[in-house]
Every structure is written in C-alpha cells, then in structure tokens.
Design brief:
Elements (H helix, E strand, L loop, with lengths): L14 H10 L10 E4 L6 H7 L8 E3 L15 E2 L6 H5 L1 H8 L7 E2 L18 H16 L6 E2 L8 H17 L9 E7 L2 H17 L10 E8 L5 H17 L3 E6 L27 H7 L28 H10 L1
Parallel strand pairs: 1-2, 1-8, 2-3, 4-5, 6-7, 7-8
Helix pairs in contact: 1-8, 5-6, 8-9
Bound molecules: 2-acetamido-2-deoxy-beta-D-glucopyranose (3 copies).
One 2-acetamido-2-deoxy-beta-D-glucopyranose binds next to α7.
C-alpha cells in the first residue's frame, strides 16, 4: 500500500539504522516485554488460553472498555481500561468499573479516535468538547487514589489526527492556562506499512517531546495500541511484523504495543483482511501469530480447552476503527 508509505513530518529512520539497531538487540520474550493484545473478543476458549498461558510474552491487554472481557483469564496480564468517548467519561458507572479493577491496572487510555466517526469505531468528539471533558472527568482520576497513568486521546494515524491533537492542545490551554491537559503517555494507532509506522511515531515524538513544552527528561512514552498491516497477504504481513517487532522493542520512546488482532482469520473484518489474524480457522497460530508469540511458540500450535465460549461476545463496533483511516487515505 504505497499510500501508507508516503513520508510524513518527523524523522524517518533509514532502513540501515533500523536493521543495525535491531540486530544488536537481544531481548528475551518475557523480559521487559512491551507486547500486548488489542482484544476485540474471541469466543474460542483455547485461543484465549494460549494468549494468556504462563510463558506468554504478552504482559497487557485492553478491549476498548473500562472493564475486562469475561472470557479472558487475565491473571498474567495487566488489564488496561479505556474511556471511549464523552458518555463513558461522564458516566458514574465508569468510575465504579475502574475502582473494581485489580491493583495491577494502573494505566488508563482516554478517548478512542476522537477524530474518527462513530461508525468506524471512533468517538467523533470536537477538540473543544474533548478538552472540557478531559479536564472535568479524566484529570481527576489521574490525581485520585489509584493515581492512574493516563494517555492522551488516541487519534487515527493520519494528518487529521495530528490536526485534531493541535486543536485539542490549544483548547486545553484555553481552559487551563497553567496545566493544559496533563497526561502520562501517548497512545498511537497505525494501520499500514513499516516505514509509515516509523514516520508516524517519529512525528508524535516530535510533536509532544521535541516541540512540546516538556522539560528535559520529562518526555512521554508512546503506546502503539492499534497496529496492523491491512489488506496484505500473509507473507507480506509477516515481513512487516518481522521488521516492526525488533524496531519497537529497541525504540526507547515506545513503552508498549499491541497488534490487531488476536482473532481467527474467519473473524477478521473486511477492511483489515485475514492477513492480520494471529490464529487460523482451526485455532492454530498462523505464522504471524507464532512470530508475535515468539520463542517457544510455533505455527499451528493450539491452546488448551475446548470449543467456543457460548455466544460470541465480540463487540463488532470495535472491529471497525481502521475504516476511518482507510477513508482518510483514499481521499488524501
Ligand atoms: C516541530 O517544530 C518544527 C519547527 O517549528 C516544525 O517545522 C514541525 O512541523 C513541528 N513538528 C510537529 C510534529 O508539529
Ligand atoms: C500545547 O500548547 C502549549 C501552550 O500554547 C504549548 O506550550 C505546548 O508546547 C503545546 N504542546 C504541544 C504538545 O503542542
Ligand atoms: C525475520 O528476519 C530475520 C532476519 O532479520 C530472519 O532471519 C527471519 O527468518 C525472519 N523471520 C520471518 C518469520 O520472516
């Protein structure tokens, strides 16, 4: 997809730099892992058991909601709640759901693709309304008992997203000239080729950390919370992931990332295509899935347990966030 690879503002690391740094890296799967899953819902018990098995390299997961999905046994993984839009931010039940989470939950993701439309999984919020709600409802959680570490809203990986963030920041400072909208980390989405990903992360780092007003050593880290190469065949997708994982693992300003998605090929949405799936239709790891799970996992490997967990709990609305990005790229 050449439209994804067009250079953006921000530093574009050369392939040589990337390859050199990644070969220097010897990171064992479970030590200092940054890896997690963006969980859209998977009714197959064995798949979820494999993802959360004791030697999993995955350390965190989220499901675009303030409370965890029932079908994921989560003792080994940090659940990361997300406040999707204005309604969730102001609702009292969100506060209750957050306080019921285990102590291991410490990070909170704010507004999901506010520059995107609701029917593509976004929350469609104006920067002005988002700033007001963020200051009223989200900042207090940061300062509350659990001292949640809070992300900036996660925009689509696009020029629209960057414009939205600029306007959001302006509105924040209009409302609170001293603090703006304080946050602890940056959440980023990317659907596209590897070099576009590197460029987009460079742009966000430049926007917040180089150009932003934070002092030396106070830079925010990036979490890549949605990540995939849509609409490519399995082999091209494996190559993209094979470049991406070592790159993100060695990049200091990236703290965590999550591939989209942890589902079977059959359950992939039309926009991403089957190539992104970590499981094949029989519940075996795809080559991509084996690469994501790393050492000790192999293609075709299945998890333990039987059958499907009754009814599909997937929230299909969440399968759609890439749509907006697609629309944006096609009109660009
Ligand atoms: C950072 O600042 C430079 C210099 O003013 C500007 O050219 C660049 O576009 C800014 N980057 C972002 C991501 O806003
Ligand atoms: C947000 O706006 C403030 C006030 O104008 C400015 O100092 C700061 O650098 C901006 N931050 C970002 C990330 O653009
Ligand atoms: C990933 O890349 C390395 C070299 O950088 C290569 O040895 C390995 O076979 C590749 N793995 C896959 C699954 O493509």
């Amino acid at each position: 997809m050449t439209r994804d690879t067009r250079p953006r503002r921000g530093q574009i690391p050369t392939l040589l730099t990337i390859l050199t740094t990644s070969t220097l890296l010897t990171l064992s799967a479970t030590q200092n892992s940054k890896r997690g899953i963006a969980y859209v819902g998977n009714p197959h018990v064995p798949d979820n058991a494999l993802l959360t098995s004791t030697n999993t390299p995955l350390i965190w997961y989220y499901n675009w909601a303030p409370s965890p999905p029932r079908e994921v046994p989560s003792a080994n993984l940090e659940f990361v709640p997300l406040i999707h839009g204005l309604d969730e931010a102001s609702s009292e039940s969100t506060g209750r759901q957050l306080s019921n989470l285990p102590d291991s939950s410490r990070h909170l993701l704010s507004f999901n693709e506010p520059d995107g439309t609701t029917n593509s999984g976004g929350s469609s919020i104006s920067p002005e309304d988002a700033a007001q709600s963020y200051i009223e409802h989200i900042v207090p959680m940061r300062n509350g008992n659990r001292a949640w570490k809070i992300s900036q809203p996660s925009v689509t990986g696009s020029g629209n997203g960057l414009d939205w963030l600029r306007r959001f920041n302006e509105s924040c400072y209009e409302l609170d000239a001293e603090n703006g909208c304080p946050a602890d980390f940056i959440a980023a989405h990317w659907y596209g080729a590897f070099d576009g990903l590197a460029s987009w992360l460079g742009t966000l780092d430049e926007f917040y950390n180089t150009n932003g007003s934070r002092g030396e050593g106070e830079g925010m880290k990036i979490w890549v919370t949605e990540l995939a190469l849509p609409q490519q065949d399995a082999q091209v997708t494996v190559q993209m992931m094979n470049l991406t994982l070592p790159y993100l693992d060695q990049l200091d300003y990236v703290e965590r990332y999550a591939w989209f998605g942890a589902f079977r090929a059959d359950d992939a949405n039309e926009w991403t295509g089957d190539g992104v799936a970590l499981f094949d239709d029989d519940g075996g790891l795809t080559e991509l899935g084996a690469l994501y799970m790393g050492d000790g996992f192999s293609e075709g490997q299945k998890g333990e347990g039987e059958g499907a967990a009754g009814q599909l709990l997937a929230n299909w609305r969440m399968m759609l966030p890439p749509l907006l990005t697609a629309v944006w790229f096609s009109i660009y």
